[in-house]
Specification:
By secondary structure, this protein is mainly alpha-helical. It is 77% helix and 0% strand.
Length: 233
């Protein structure tokens, strides 16, 4: 049975896909421009292309810095890695919030297809174990970026909204597989969300510094113990 995905998730994913398609179209347009004569290419096109290139370099620098462990890079550091002037960063981005937003969209575009993929399994319990394994991969990928965003979300209304949106996504993509009897056990259903949450993964991997496979084993053990006391269907 196909995964029933909430409308707000579909809309978000569609926007991400449109952004990626637009980026590809930009690349195709550049190839087309090269086929026209130099004299016919407006100077403004060159400026726009340099502007797009600088913006892409700034976002790539932000992604690279956070991915390597600098969870709160300064605008000056981002500019240095991007190879642009500090003024250029704020010419392309009104503030660091906007830069965090674009970084989030880059990372989300990578992992959303995995998140939205319908889990295999003959029973709802088997599907939850598949979700647990997939989330281990996804959470491992986004770990530094979510930590970075969490550090700033109390000073950013956008990041706080995005944080709550991701919590809702985590919950909804579990709840859709739960039988009515399990949903009725509110405490039990919420416990499943805690076990399979990013925060639990962050605690195991970042705070307790467990190796990936050990953290994954802990999640599976917690899930197994929780399911043992729940109805079969």
């Amino acid at each position: 049975m196909a995964l029933i995905v909430p409308k707000y998730i579909c809309n978000r994913f569609c926007r991400l896909r449109q952004s990626l398609f637009a980026a590809k179209q930009v690349g195709m347009t550049n190839v087309s421009h090269k086929m026209t004569s130099y004299s016919e290419t407006p100077l403004a096109d060159g400026r726009r292309e340099r502007s797009r290139s600088s913006r892409s370099k700034i976002v790539a620098a932000m992604v690279d810095l956070v991915g390597k462990g600098d969870v709160a890079p300064s605008a000056a550091r981002v500019a240095e890695v991007a190879g642009v002037g500090l003024r250029s960063v704020f010419r392309h981005f009104d503030d660091m919030d906007e830069l965090y937003r674009e970084m989030g969209e880059v990372i989300e575009a990578q992992v959303m297809p995995i998140i939205l993929q319908s889990p295999t399994g003959a029973t709802w319990q088997e599907k939850l174990f598949v979700i647990a394994d997939r989330r281990a991969m996804v959470f491992e990928t986004i770990l530094p970026y979510r930590i970075s965003a969490n550090l700033k979300r109390f000073q950013s209304s956008y990041l706080m909204q995005d944080y709550r949106r991701m919590l809702r996504l985590e919950s909804d993509t579990i709840e859709v597989h739960l039988p009515v009897a399990v949903k009725a056990d509110v405490a039990g259903a919420r416990g499943l969300n805690v076990i399979l949450s990013f925060q639990t993964w962050r605690l195991l991997r970042h705070d307790q510094e467990l190796p990936f496979e050990d953290a994954k084993a802990v999640v599976r053990r917690l899930l197994s113990d929780a399911l043992a006391g729940m109805p079969e269907d």
